[in-house]
Design goal:
One of its GO terms (biological process) is response to desiccation. Belongs to the LEA type 2 family. InterPro entries: Lea14-like (IPR045043), LEA_2 (IPR004864), WHy-dom (IPR013990). It comes from Capsicum baccatum (Peruvian pepper). This protein is flat. The chain folds into two domains: about 130 residues, Sandwich (Immunoglobulin-like), CATH 2.60.40.1820; about 35 residues. It has a four-stranded antiparallel sheet with strand order 4-3-6-7, with helices on one face. Strands 1-2-5 form a three-stranded antiparallel sheet. With about 180 residues, it is of the alpha+beta class. A hairpin with a 3-residue loop joins β6 and β7. It is built from five helices and seven strands; from the N terminus they run αβββββααββαα.
């Protein structure tokens, strides 16, 4: 029995070393945008880049998210079955989070201090790795959302309009160039 236990321990140690040295999927928040402001909530969308180092497609079981501001949880939830990670590739995943206005109203002190909303987004990508089972990729991202001032609302953001016009012009030129080449 002693020999069998030693062999089992040796194999367990070697397997544990190999697993610890294996590449694992990694995730990075690329951008967080406010997509929609409605009467009852603000919808944030995080763009997350997830790298899959394996030769097989990996299903994402669910994404758990928590949005915090001023040390308080203002929104949390689960996104079931958001898709899969492409094999040996980088997959962009859109993670929507809806924050009710009632939660933001409790943050008046933070908003009044610097006229922005400081937030922390905590994500947990729960993926199903073959042989090993469920594995969570934890991710934390902090940022701030600048609120518009009354003068911004009154006159609009001229710089943003100029930026949009330039982007349209560049797209139009690229399209024309592509058509000329064809």
């Amino acid at each position: 029995m002693d020999f069998v236990d030693k062999a089992r321990n040796y194999v367990s140690e070697k397997v544990a070393e190999k697993v610890a040295d294996m590449e694992k999927p990694e995730a990075t928040v690329v951008d967080v945008d406010v997509k929609k402001i409605s009467f009852d909530s603000i919808s944030y969308h995080a763009k997350v880049s997830v790298t899959n180092p394996y030769q097989v497609l990996i299903p994402i079981m669910e994404i758990a998210y928590v949005v915090k501001s001023a040390g308080r949880i203002v929104a949390s939830g689960l996104i079931p079955d958001p898709g899969s990670l492409k094999a040996k590739s980088i997959t962009m995943v859109d993670v929507p989070a809806k924050v009710p206005h009632s939660a933001l109203l409790s943050l008046v002190r933070d908003i009044a201090a610097d006229w922005d909303i400081d937030y922390t987004l905590e994500l947990g990508f729960i993926i199903d790795l073959p042989v090993f089972g469920n594995f969570t990729i934890p991710l934390t991202y902090s940022g701030e959302y600048k609120l518009p001032t009354l003068s911004d609302l009154w006159r609009g953001d001229e710089a943003e309009e100029e930026k949009e016009e330039k982007a349209k012009k560049v797209k139009k030129e690229e399209k024309e160039e592509k058509e000329r080449k064809e």
